[in-house]
Structure formats: structure tokens, C-alpha cells
Specification:
Largest sheet: 8 strands, mixed
CATH architecture of the domain at 11-95 and 126-206 and 301-370: 3-Layer(bba) Sandwich
CATH superfamily of the domain at 11-95 and 126-206 and 301-370: FAD/NAD(P)-binding domain
Distance between the termini: 59 Å
CATH class of the domain at 11-95 and 126-206 and 301-370: Alpha Beta
Strand content: 25-35%
Radius of gyration: 24 Å
Structural class: alpha+beta
CATH topology of the domain at 11-95 and 126-206 and 301-370: FAD/NAD(P)-binding domain
Helix content: 25-40%
Length: about 550
């Protein structure tokens, strides 16, 4: 029995079944086809389907594969999942954590709290194996389908060719019963780092592959209770890796990352005896454990130069890749679909021009570049490229143990937070510059506890006019606008995070809960709100 055979997480969630499209003489046309059934593809399909946009998912598998893969899901991913209706089972199953600790050798350098303030529904992170995360999304899709959401999933449907036309794309699909062809108004490529669609379209990645290797071992440990925290070691005392990372997962399982260098024999390193030797060196010879899953990866910080070609949009790993330290891969992919789905829905329903999708590319390339920059800096700190770089790193670690000023220089992976799209073409210039910067146009709306619940729950997934401490304009006075007002008193965390020293304010919030504009109550007249809404839906202001 191999290590993979012991892994419990595999779900044949959507076995192959013949579709009516396979019997048509002419290609059936679908509004949206999502290629790839991982967490990014399923989140995209669920978001579109809940908005009423018919969507078809094509996956070359029949369900959720083995291997824990991504395990750290951020507060923002949970906020998105909550809006989609599936965050609670994720949190119930996952391991909640906010605390991280950094060690140098056998000394603790310092610890940090990723969410020290109250007034948020969700924690900074949960640890949850990717198959469980995917299963929660698929279960929610099944529930949504039963409620009438127009979502279809086809397993063992592999896209083998694509032909983009002026107003649609043609997809050649292979199944166990042979090929067929369909058409799509829009295609969303969520087909992973190896993206066959990207290759079919002659597109490529640009960026850097770092000359280092990391061994992942998922280990089920018996009779040892480590705290539910992120522990990272530089120069660990066990010497079983140049650095080590320890994370707790559900099912009494722990993720261990060993930095093992570039010039290694991967097949040799993955042999069970050799993996067990490294784990014993770290945990101690008297600790009983089972190996659950192993893999080796390298740091890759790359992205496509364009995320949008003709009728095809790229999201998740198909569009960009970053190192695992910082949990920026799956989380940024979920944020891609959060950014894309509402825009695609407005375009398909004729409420926005197709040029609105250019803002998806602009914003998510900005986010990818931020993630790549943070991942590259983490890689350079974790894996010094010269003797002088290592001297600098070790000096920083020594100083950080005793001096606060050095701690921001320590980089064991800056953990995922949403990008603030300061340069977004959908932003209206800030009319409230003295209000808190964390709530400026382009930023994700900060959550806050309010009477009866939390702010993000009330914002939901549509355009909202958030009026704090004032009435604001009447959305019904804006012709044709699908805009709802939310009026709240200026209390507690809400006032702190949105007003600062201001007595009142009006915010325009997009369907992905990103702030598009903000004003003083006097400046937030119907004309100003209408202009900002027009800009945020791509009607004007996009070159």
C-alpha cells in the first residue's frame, strides 16, 4: 500500500454521464463554460449560478482528487464562501488559527497574531485540506441546483481543442464515449498550473523558478498535542531541512514542510524510509506517526502577461503561480472568481459592456504582481542566495528576538490578505481622504460587528450604498440602478473602520464587496452616486 492509498480524501462527486449535447448535430451554445473542477472553478460556477447565469463545468476527472495540496484558507476566502453559502461547514471541519511563531534554531524569535481585533465573523485562517474545501463547494452546488440554480457539472469531459470566434468560442470535448463539440459565449479557464487551454491558445507564463526544493509530508501524529499555531523554523535543530514549517490540519494530521535543496534526487527523497527519517529527526524517535501524503515542490513566481484573450478568461493557477509560503495560491484564485463572476453576469445580462471585463484583468494582474512580489521576498529570505544575504538574514533573526523594529524584516511568508486595487479603473477618486485608509476606494470592505450580526452579511453580493450616520441619497431616484441602501448608526468597530474622525459617510460597495467610492454626506448627492455607479459598471471612465 502506498502513502497515497492511505489518504482518505477522494470523492467521486460527479461521475461521467452522457449529456444531451453529445447527441446534437450542431454544437449547443452555453453562456459560460468553466474548464476545471478545482476550488477556483467550482467557486466561479457557484457564484455565477447563484446570480442566475447558466454555467457548465467541464472537468477531466469525476470528482475530487487525493492529496491535501492547499491547506490554508484565509479570512477573505471564508468571507467569499460565506456569501456563497458554504463557509460554515468549512469552518466546522477546519482548524481555526490566528497565532504564528518563528524560531531560529532552538530559540523562539517572536510570535504574531494575524487578527488581534474583534468584530469579524471569520478567523484570520483555517487549515483545511483542499479536498474538504472542494467538497463543501460541490455540496453547496448540489443544494443550489436543487433550488433551481442553473449549474451543470460534467465529469470526464476533457477539452482537447478551442477555437475562438468574434462572439463565442468552440470547444472540442472528449468523453469515454467519444468526442463532441459545444459553443460558449465565454470560457473561464480554471484548469490549473499546467493549463491545457493556455497552451492551446499559445500563451505562456513569465517569471521565475527558484532553485530550491521543499518536501511536504502530511503526518498523522499519535499522543502528541502541538498547539494550533503556525510554527516556522530557520536552521531547525533537527537539521532535517534548512527550514521547516509545521501546521495542524483536521483528522489529527499535521503538515510539515522540509527545505531540502535543489540538487536532490526527488525519487529517492520521496521513498517512505527517507521521509520517515526526516520526520523522526524533527519529532523525536519516540513519537509515533503515520505518513498520509507526500510531495515535492519548487518555488515558482510566474504569471501570464494577459488574463483575457478573446472569449477566454483565466483564473487561479492557470493565470498565476506563487510559492506556497504565505498561502497565496488558492486564496488568490478564489478572489479571482469573486472579482470576475459579477462582471461576467452583468455583461451577459446586458447591464454592462464587455469592456468591463478589462477591469478583471487589470485588477487581478495587480493582485498577482503583489503576490509574486511578496512570495519572491519570502523566498529570498528563506533561501539566501549568497553568503552576505545569509549573514543579513541571521542578523535580522537575532535582532528580532529582542527588538520590535526588526520583526517586520523577518519573512517566513507574508500571509495572504486581499490586494487593495488603488489603480482600478472602476474607482471614483477618494472624496473622503481623512477617513481610514483601510476603507479607501479599491479596498475590500472591512467586516465589523453590527446590531444583529456582521456588516459583510448585510452587504451581500450586489451593489450597496452604505450610509453610516446619515440618510444618504435615495437609490430609487437613480434611473435603472440596481442599488440598495444600507443605513447604519455610527457605532463601535463600524465607526472606527469606516469613519475615523468623520461624523458620517456614504460608501458605494461593489458586488465583490470592494469599495468603489466614498463621500461626505453633503457630497453624496444622486448625481455623484450615479456617476460612481456608472464608472463601477464600466459604463464610463475606462480607457
Amino acid at each position: 500500500m502506498t502513502i497515497a492509498d492511505r489518504y482518505p480524501l477522494a470523492y467521486r462527486a460527479y461521475p461521467y454521464a452522457r449529456a444531451a449535447d453529445q447527441d446534437r448535430t450542431e454544437p449547443a451554445r452555453h453562456p459560460v463554460v468553466v474548464v476545471g473542477g478545482g476550488p477556483v472553478g467550482m467557486a466561479c460556477a457557484l457564484d455565477l449560478g447563484l446570480r442566475g447565469t447558466p454555467v457548465l463545468v467541464l472537468d477531466d476527472h469525476e470528482g475530487i482528487a487525493t492529496g491535501s495540496r492547499a491547506i490554508c484558507f484565509s479570512k477573505r476566502s471564508l468571507e467569499i464562501a460565506h456569501r456563497l453559502g458554504c463557509a460554515q461547514p468549512m469552518t466546522d471541519k477546519g482548524v481555526v488559527w490566528n497565532i504564528g511563531k518563528v524560531f531560529h534554531g532552538d530559540r523562539k524569535v517572536y510570535e504574531f497574531n494575524l487578527l488581534p481585533e474583534d468584530g469579524h465573523r471569520h478567523p484570520a485562517f483555517i487549515n483545511l485540506q483542499q479536498p474538504y474545501f472542494e467538497k463543501c463547494l460541490v455540496d453547496r452546488i448540489r443544494e443550489a441546483q436543487a433550488g433551481g440554480a442553473p449549474i451543470e457539472i460534467r465529469g470526464r469531459n476533457r477539452v482537447e481543442a478551442i477555437d475562438t470566434q468574434a462572439d463565442h468560442a468552440l470547444l472540442d470535448v472528449m468523453t469515454p464515449e467519444g468526442p463532441y463539440r459545444i459553443a460558449a459565449d465565454w470560457v473561464v479557464a480554471c484548469d490549473g498550473a499546467g493549463s491545457p487551454l493556455r497552451k492551446m491558445l499559445g500563451m505562456s507564463f513569465e517569471g521565475q523558478v527558484f532553485r530550491d526544493s521543499f518536501l511536504i509530508a502530511d503526518v498523522r501524529i499519535r499522543d502528541v498535542a502541538f498547539p494550533t499555531e503556525r510554527w516556522f523554523w530557520f536552521d531547525p535543530p533537527s537539521k532535517s531541512g534548512a527550514s521547516q514549517l509545521l501546521h495542524r490540519q483536521p483528522d489529527d494530521t499535521w503538515r510539515i514542510d522540509f527545505q531540502i535543496g535543489w540538487d536532490v534526487d526527488r525519487a529517492e527523497e520521496l521513498k517512505e524510509d527517507n521521509v520517515r527519517r526526516r520526520v523522526r529527526d524533527m519529532l523525536g524517535a519516540d513519537v509515533a506517526f503515520d505518513l498520509v501524503w507526500t510531495s515535492i515542490y519548487t518555488f515558482q513566481c510566474r504569471r501570464m502577461t494577459r488574463f483575457h484573450k478573446d472569449r477566454v478568461l483565466f483564473a487561479g493557477d492557470s493565470a498565476h503561480q506563487v510559492s506556497p509560503f504565505g498561502a497565496r495560491g488558492a486564496n488568490s484564485g478564489i478572489q479571482d472568481t469573486d472579482n470576475l463572476a459579477w462582471k461576467l453576469h452583468l455583461v451577459l445580462t446586458g447591464k454592462a459592456p464587455a469592456t468591463l471585463l478589462d477591469s478583471y484583468e487589470a485588477e487581478r494582474i495587480e493582485a498577482a504582481d503583489e503576490n509574486i512580489l511578496n512570495s519572491t521576498r519570502a523566498t529570498d529570505f528563506i533561501s539566501p542566495k549568497s553568503a552576505m544575504s545569509r549573514i543579513f538574514r541571521d542578523a535580522v533573526l537575532d535582532l528580532a528576538e529582542h527588538h520590535d523594529f526588526a520583526r517586520p524584516l523577518v519573512n517566513s511568508g507574508r500571509l495572504s490578505v486581499p490586494c487593495t486595487h488603488d489603480a482600478s479603473p472602476l474607482n471614483t477618486p477618494d472624496a473622503l481622504p481623512d477617513a481610514p485608509a483601510r476603507a479607501r476606494p479599491g479596498s475590500t470592505a472591512p467586516d465589523a460587528g453590527i446590531a444583529g450580526g456582521f456588516l459583510l452579511d448585510r452587504l451581500g453580493g450586489g451593489f450597496r450604498l452604505l450610509c453610516i450616520g446619515c440618510e444618504g441619497p435615495d437609490p430609487d431616484a437613480l434611473p435603472g440602478a440596481e442599488l440598495t441602501a444600507l443605513r447604519l448608526p455610527p457605532d463601535g468597530a463600524l465607526a472606527e473602520r469606516y469613519l475615523g474622525a468623520e461624523p458620517a459617510a456614504v460608501y458605494l460597495v461593489r458586488p465583490d464587496q470592494i469599495i468603489a467610492a466614498r463621500w461626505t454626506p453633503a457630497a453624496a448627492d444622486a448625481a455623484a452616486v450615479a456617476a460612481a455607479l456608472s464608472r463601477a459598471t464600466g459604463q464610463e471612465g475606462i480607457a
